[in-house]
Amino acid sequence: MFSAVIKPVKTFGRYLQLMAKVFSRPERLRMYWKQYVKEMQQLGVDSIGIVLMISFFIGAVICIQMKVNIQSPWMPRFTTGYTTREILLLEFSSSIMCLILAGKVGSNIASEIGTMRVTQQIDALDIMGVNSASFLILPKIVALLTMIPVLVTFSMVAGFAGAYAISYAGILTPDDLTYGLQHSFNQWFVWMSIIKSFFFAFIIASVSAFYGYTVEGGSVEVGKASTDSVVHCSMLILFADIFLTQLLS
Fold first, then answer.
1. In terms of residue numbers, what domain contains 138?
2. The whole model's pTM is what?
3. Does 128 fall in a domain?
4. Are 160 and 111 in contact, with CB atoms under 8 Å apart?
5. Among 69, 72, 100, 161, which is most buried by a count of CB atoms within 10 Å?
C-alpha cells in the first residue's frame, strides 16, 4: 500500500523534472522553428479529416436524438436546435474531441519518442550536447497549443453542419433548427471551450511525451508506454474538465 502511494508521487516528480528541461532556453531557434512547423503538420493538420468526420456525424446523431426523445407538443419547436448547440459547445467539441485526439495524437507522440529512446537516438542527441527533452518535446507542445483550439473550432462548425444536414433530410425544419441554435446564445460558451482546449492540449502533449521519453526496454515497452499515455491523458483531461468547467462557468 505504501508503494502504491509513493509510485504516483515519484512519477509526478519525474514529470516535473522533465518539464523543467523542456522549458529551458533553446539553443538554436531556427532548428526549433522547423520542428514546430513539422509537428503542426503531423499532429494538427493531419487530424483535421477525422475531426471533421466525427463531429459531422455526432452533430447529426445528437440532433436526431434530441428530436426523437426530447421534442414533444408541450415543448417549443426550437428545443432540438438549442440542446444540440449546448451539447456541442459545452462538452463535445472541447472535452470529448480532445479525448479522441488523445488516442490519435497522444499515442503517436509516445510511440515516436519511445522508439527514439529504445533505439538510442535520444542518447546520441545528449552526447552531441543537444537538450533532447527540449528539442523533441517543446515543438510538440507548442504545435498542439496552436492546433487543438483550431481543431475544436472546426469541430463546432462540422457538428452544426451535421445538424443542418439532418434538418434538410426532413427530421425538422431548418428554420426551427436555426432559431434553436440562435436562442439565448452565450458567446462565452465558445470561448470557454477554446480556453479548455489549451489545457487539454498541454496535457496530451506533455504527458504523452513523458511516457515516451522515460520508456525503458524494447518494442513491447514502447507499446505499453503508448497505451499508458492514452489512459493517463484521458483521466487527466476528465479531471481537468471538471475543474475548468466549475472555474469558468
1. 29-248
2. 0.89
3. yes
4. no
5. 100
